[in-house]
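Example 434.
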Amino acid sequence: MDFSAQYQQKLTDAASLAARVENGWTIGMDAALAQAPGFAEALAARAAKNEVSGVWVHTLLDVYPFAFYLDESLSGKLNGMSWFSGGGARKAVNAGFADLIPGYYRDMPGHIRRAWDYDAVVLAASPMDKHGYFSLSCTSSYSEAMLDKTGRVYIEVNRELPRAVCGTQVHISRVDAIIENDHSLPVLPTAAPDALSTTIGGYIAELIPDGACIQLGIGAIPDAVGAALKTKHDLGIHTEMFTDSMVELIECGAVNNSKKQIHRYQSVTTFAYGSQRIYDYIDDNPGIAILPVDYVNDPAVICRNDNMISINAALEVDLFGQVCAESVGTKHMSGTGGQVDYVRGACQSKGGKSFIAFSSTAKGDTINKIKPVLTPGAIVTTSKNDVDYIVTEYGVAHLRGESLASRARQLIAIAHPNFRDELRFEAKKRGMLI
Ligand code: COA
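Predicted structure in complex with coenzyme A:
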């Protein structure tokens, strides 16, 4: 079988590939770097010329400036559907011209297999290897589920994408068309942790033993925790998103994955997104496995590693310990992602702990994030029954298994001092401070 000849036979250009799209098609893309910007741009150009209508493109964590999330004038012709959110999707969902599918990240392959059919799936990949395989590079996520539910597989090859040796691979025999689009990869801006994040990172690091297995979410605080873990030993990584701070922990020797119960000596993730340093680390590296999210984020898998530690962020928390990480009132900010998957997995692990960490206030100390009751419309991401540790710059509250009175007292103690009297008053009024 001459794979190069097959490749040449299937090779086309972005405009020609976009020209195959028919009215009413549903097109699947996966998370972050698996997305296909060349194809998307050509499709948007057709929509702008009124050549298509009723086309929907699915993404998760959009990382390119997709017209279907940025240009409302395309609505009705070309719309976006997000499985989580992202820069563009967040704005478009709030503006009312993009839609969102709620769910736990681990369940999304199941939702796709049960409820969705794709007219085409378009995935970015690194160049084909000598055996005819394209590596889906930094993303595994739900690609395999989408590939199972489509009749057409389009690959956008980018030579800048690293080749993940332990990740999802697509053989050329399954591919209908290929386009080539070399471009430098998007990076997630990072900043050195500020004083507040460093304080929070320090509190959490004190509670993480040597030999623990960690998951870090997106944002300044998880990054600061990563920085605070550099003095630890024998850490492991089992995470949803592989980030820069994890590469730093590997390179400084704090992570060696030696104490894990599953995937020993290997970091596990379902996608990676960050700086070029990550992409260079992943290239041809058997030390990292990028695997489907229904496996990686399954709490029954997560908890197989002892001392599993998860660290995620929130927008507000009420005195019961209900965690909102998805909206400010009714304003959509994010999907559920893997927060609950890891809260549950960590809590089921022997010696495991789950941390929800955030600054006590927003908008220059004018908004209190620890609230007597959640803002109307706020979405409960992690329930009061699942929550474990809550951390702010004022300390650590341990809520799991604790009474309502203990929860209220502990949460008031880590709220910003400007808001503690009001919280105490509201808690007393409700009979919570026995
Ligand atoms: N009321 C009003 N505004 C608030 C607020 C509140 N209670 N809390 C935060 N904000 C504002 C901030 O001021 C900031 O505004 P700006 O963009 O104008 O500066 C914005 O909301 C974002 O807040 P920030 O604290 O910077 O959040 P973040 O970017 O670190 O993201 C989540 C936090 C919760 C949205 C993010 O962690 C997430 O997407 N979680 C999803 C669930 C999850 O944890 N998944 C696993 C991750 S891999």
